[in-house]
Amino acid sequence: MDFGVGYFPTHDAMAPGPLARLVEERGQSAVFFAEHTHIPASRDTPYNAGGGEGELPRRYWHTFDLFVALTAAAAATSTLRVGSGICLVVERDPIITAKEVASIDHLSGGRFEFGVGAGWNREEMRNHGTDPRVRMAVMRERVEAMKVIWRDHEASYQGRHVSFDRILCYPKPVQRPHPPILVGGTGPGVLDRVLSFGDAWFPNYDESIFPRIAELRSRADRPIDVQVLSVPSDPKVLERLHEAGVQRAGQWLPSAPKSRVERALDEWEAAIATFEGE
């Protein structure tokens, strides 16, 4: 099992490039950036639908653009895996997103990991023209369409929510047939989505994931990885994840100045060292 971090790359905190360089120097294997284009000011969807409690933290509406932040991270590092955690594909044009994913993968030398999800903020989706009631179908078709764009010289896709004929779109990703697709979420149908179009399951940590990891393994007819974010700095939790066959455990770092980020990394690394018997 290896280790990584998640981060909301906000304009008033440690910048994406220096943050990525720091976590690479500290021995982490990957950094994942969160995405929100905006947060509706008159919001009805409760924050706990996104795995949190109480008031929505301000970092949710202060993030840099996801792919701009990923470009800075890729340019500042040489071995670190850089990824989306998660890209809200139901709020994005699939042709543009396919171009951005391939561009990051190309410029990074094949270090991109594509975490995808439908999100939890219904008002945010509606502002992008997506009906929350069909967001899972929209996500599936957009991911399927992107796979075709990455694979084919002349790409075509015909679906209910995505449709285009014979397009040329380059560059293609370095990783073939495409960067790993990590399907986020813990909802009732998430394992179906992982098995349908994902290479890995990418949930936030809670106790309920352990029986579902076993279920995923029993249902899969191909190798499926599991990566987990929001992992506490607890060696016992790391041991349980390792025993469950999790490939990577990650913790969210604070969107803050370097000194606070370093303190959080110290705690995370201390837990890793205890788990590894150092």
Structure keywords:
8-stranded parallel beta barrel, 278 residues, 10 strands, alpha/beta, TIM Barrel, single chain, 37% helix, globular, 9 helices
Structure description:
The chain is α/β, with parallel strands linked by helices and 278 residues long. It has one domain: TIM Barrel (Alpha-Beta Barrel). It is 37% helix and 18% strand. Helix 7 links the parallel strand 8 and strand 9. The two termini are 15 Å apart.
> In angstroms, what separates the terminal alpha carbons?
15 Å
The figure for the number of domains is: 1
Named at the architecture level, the CATH assignment is Alpha-Beta Barrel
Low-confidence stretches: none
What amount of the residues lies in strands?
15-25%
Spatial strand arrangement across the major sheet: 1-2-3-4-7-8-9-10
Number of strands: 10
Name of the CATH first level: Alpha Beta
Major β-sheet annotation: 8 strands, parallel, barrel
Any idea of the CATH topology?
Answer: TIM Barrel
Structural class: alpha/beta
Describe, in short, the structure shown.
With 278 residues, the chain is an alpha/beta fold. It has helices spanning 16-25, 66-76, 94-107, 122-127, 135-151, 190-197, 209-219, 235-243, 258-275, and strands at residues 2-7, 30-33, 81-88, 112-117, 155-158, 163-167, 181-184, 200-202, 225-228, 248-252.
